[in-house]
Amino acid sequence: MALAAPVMRMASSSAFLPKILPTTLFSTSRIQIYAQQFSLPLLPSLTLAVPVGFQLGLPSLPSILEGIWESILKAVPKKKTSHMKKRHRQMAGKALKDVTSLCKCPACGEIKRMHYLCPHCAATHPAEIFSLAPTPTSLLSASGSSALRVHSTTDPSFPLQQTIPNAHKLGCHHICTARGGLGNVAASVGFGGEIKIWRLGPSSSDEKRNEWQLEWELPPSKTNGGDVWAVALSADEEYLACTTSDGRIHVWEIGTREKIQTYETGARGGGSFAMAVDLSRDGRLTASGHESGAVYVFNNDAGRMVYSLSGLAKPVRAVAFSPGCKRLAAAGNAGIIALYDMEHGEHVGNLTTPSGRPAWITSLDWNDAGEYLLSGSLDGKVKVWDVARGACVATHSETESALWSVRWLPKTERALGPGMAKSEMFCAAGASRSLTFYREATGS
């Protein structure tokens, strides 16, 4: 069988030169002459034998670059949206519809954000809560609104027992009860400067139910000086101490409704603003904290000042006697708690945490045993201090809003729940407009 020889095609070298050399080299006649001289004598006619049906499998340049570009894109990781950026989008209102959409609260019927707690239901008061006053069975709270509210502390849900409407038209900034007393008398001070004394008694509608009722009112005209600010009651609920903006401390007898003592801290009422006051449980001493950073202690029996305490150079916002009347705690804008000995009037120590800029301390309170000291500050932190060790043993920071008042709840025989009969409990309130209750964790 005869095999057909493959047909060979001849290609000259001149056919490859335009593909190898750029066309720009042939733009002028001079370059064309040199190219012709270079191609003719130096490069003789070169022929290549290419069989028919044979093609070079060389890929084109665009296809090569496209493959390289795809490999580069695959090697670079995809951009992922961080959790912080998602959170910022939510806060800016650019999140998913089911997060930012509004709905009606099934409890109160007010409009709220979906998937969020209703602020109207969680808020105890319509305004900031400035002061708390505990009794053996209830907790009184005062805020910037005109009403006072009473919550039961003998039920685990802490239900609302009573609302006293129009107690203070301009709002109330201080309320107090007798620590260690029966809890039948309370005193409150409004932003209008009036002092009101409340007493717990049988309700007019239901004799089996006790309610707080107004006993008597002390108008601002009877304070003889600056506006009234802080108040405190003695343990026997017989005496009331109040401070004024000109540095005076007045002591009233509740039974006779007469002023029995006035303490001066400056010449002719020119003293520093008295921002805090407290009465010892034995009724022997009265302490006041002032805007100048001074702390004064008065003897009620002698009617004179016994100690002028130093150690705090900034305004003092809270003073508190220990249950045994042996220690006095004072704190304020300095962010530290100063402890004083009431037997000799000496500064015995400070309670502080190693932080760069401590927050202002707005409230202090001792527990019934005098073992722990409770403090609340503007950064929203509640701290429990072990006085014997001089250290903070617990810190709670469930809110970033300012705390204006913190109080221990008196221990009662009735337990709120399993293992809570002997537990310490306290409450905190402030700019969040809600009451927060804490209890000591036990192993029982």
Automatic annotation (TrEMBL):
Family: Belongs to the bacterial ribosomal protein bL32 family.
WD repeats: 221-262, 354-395
Biological process, per Gene Ontology: translation
Protein name (database record): Meiotic recombination protein Ski8/Rec14
Any GO CC annotation of this UniProt entry: large ribosomal subunit
GO terms, molecular function: structural constituent of ribosome
Organism of derivation: Achaetomium macrosporum
Keywords associated with the record: Repeat, Ribonucleoprotein, Ribosomal protein, WD repeat
SUPFAM superfamilies: WD40 repeat-like, Zn-binding ribosomal proteins
UniProt cross-references to Pfam families, sorted A to Z: Ribosomal_L32p (PF01783), WD40 (PF00400)
